[in-house]
Amino acid sequence: MTQYMPLFRSCTSLRTLSQLHAHLLVSGLHRHPQASTKLIESYSHLGSLHSSSLLFHSFPNPDPFMFGVLIKCSTWSRHYHRSISLYHHMIRHDIPTTRFIFPSVLRACSGCGEMRVGREVHGRVVKCGFDGDNVVETALVGLYGEMGWLDEAMRVFGEMSVRDTVSWSSVVLSCVENGEVSRGLGMFREMVMMGGVVPDSVTMLGVCEGCGKLGWWRGARAAHGFVVRREIRKDEGLDSSLITMYGKCGDLQSAERVFRSASCWHTASWTAMISGYNQGGCFVEARGVFVRMLECGVEPNSVTLMCVLMSCVGLGLIRDGKSVHGYVIRKAVDPELEFLGSALLELYAETGGVRYCQEILNTIGLRNVVPWNTVISVYCQKGLLKEALLVFVRMQSQGLMPDAFGMSSALAACGKMGSLELGHQIHGHVVKRGCLDEFVLNSLIDMYSKCGFVDSGYVIFDTMKTPGIITWNSMISGFSRCGNSVMAINLFDQIYMNRLEIDEVTILSVIQACSELGYLEKGKWVHHKLITYGIWKDLFVDTALTDMYAKCGDLQSAQGVFDMMIERSVVSWSVMIAAYGVHGKIHAAISLFSQMLEAGIEPNEVTFMNILSACSHAGAVEEGRIYFRSMKDFGIEPNAEHFACIVDLLSRAGDLKGAYDIIKSIQFSVDASIWGALLNGCRIHQRMDMIKSIQKDLLDIKTDDSGYYTLFSNIYAEGGNWEEFGNVRLMMKDIGLRKVPGYSAIEIDKRVYRFGAGDTPLPQMEEIYRFLENFQCLTHGLGVRSNFIC
Length: 790
Known about the structure:
Helix 13 runs parallel beside helix 15 and helix 33 runs parallel beside helix 35 (570-582). The longest helix has 17 residues, at 765-781. Among the domains are: 638-756; 760-790. By secondary structure, it is an all-alpha fold. The chain has 46 helices and two strands.
């Protein structure tokens, strides 16, 4: 039998192996256990596990060694359940288990996630006395590490009497993959310090992955230097890991150098380079690497194509994405689109290919909810809100129940659309299914806030035992957005008093609340705290601070924050222009607008809105006309707000005819804000004749803005036309509108209280009324007229 062993090694195809098998049959050696075992192993190595199984089952009584070979071959071929089934067959029939069998069975358990079976195998390892075997113990470390039982993996590793390179590599990789990156790198340092065990390429795979996850550039350089100094043999896996590591650390030049110095460019190396460029936002370079890869004749795999599709999404190249899709179909890379389906859906959804999304969903959408979630999420991000909700409804009609991610995306779409009814239905679905994780609850709070029902969001918030910072931010932002800035600040105070985590979003929300209230002292305190927390020199925070100081009347501080900004966006410039405009400094606003243009920043719609508003406040008619006409030079079409602003400017200046001519030139439907600006100008200049001439236009307006009707009715009241006054108020009543009551806010002991007419929210209300009564009596005694009504 010995003379046939070299022949087995020379068999490089199933054909030659079949010829050898036939020769053994003729010679009668096929029944020899060693020959049969070798045939089983060879068939498996050449990709024919089925032939290996047939040969194995042709034996009436296979020995433990044959069982071990078939179990190992099944595990190599990723037929994990078959490996476990063979192992159970051995146990049931009392076939002796050798230490050779356990590593393959343990690997099969981790491969198919059978932790219960893995624990049973561990028990049998101990029972059979193999728990001192180095190879078996290393397999146990791998099992527990891959299944997320890191503490158990560390316990097994700590009890090992002999630790070789494989076991150290396994524990380093287990720590890194379970999120304990620093612990894993610490184990690597301990391995090196101990000496006697030489790290190999597998060890360095874990180290490179750890440095990449941390984005630790110095550690990445040290790891690469260690590979070079120790002359660790670089294979395909290590080359691609070094490239990936540098890509995650943002050092694309080093990644490119490693790529160019690779002894052989494999698919993994090309893929790592494409992925690195994608992570750095260099989508053009990533696409170029893929083109070079094809020119070199290297076949891409499904991971490569996934990265290329990401590049197409980043560049918005739907034609290139379609070419990749065609390649996938021609080469049958992923026939069922199990791996690439979500990437293709993201491509078509991002680039507006709604029809293609529907076709892919029809192909893969019946298996799981992931592709549906992808489409709903991308549609929501792209503003295709109606389409997102239609997909959400269609998914359920197909018999698929949405998960937390799908429901959160649908709730986000409801919030943006203001669709409270559908949001209520999804809320009911969430409660019914018990899907009450923090992610979904945050989406519910946000949805209710955006729909104007922030109190409903607060009810959800109040039921949460330990809300995270995202939940607090959602609630603070919701109150601030709905105008209840007092409650937003009170929630922020609770976060601070309870010493919870505070981030940039928290700061931005509370600064916005201070802006709405004009709460300067609190804004200054928040400014101080954000410096303490290290949230400093952030573009968004600095812009919000500039806006807050300006709205609170502290123009000097607003200017100081603006001047100290290292980077300025168009929003930053717009906010400062608005600040000058509100404070009546038209020349400073115009000068700043010119500086913005000189800095190469193009104005947007908001910038022009702010400069027109500044002109309106200052009565700078000619300047306002110039800026309004110049909007088209920057490719900006005036919207309703711009028209309302220029009409207001002309109306206040007395040019009512010019304002009316502009209204008549508007191509779209004129809303109440534009007519209201003209109406206010007529009131200021006592032009009742003009109001009568345009009365039909004014009464045809359909709006839910009570301010418009209030202004209209007040004009009739001032002119003594009580009949028309009553008609307008009756019209408001018929359409369900009422005048929005004003309110006042007062700060007492660093706390802001808000109250309106008829409210009795303050515990000091009786004392306030007594003071007003005494004050009124005092003014009467001094002969001073008082307007207080007690």
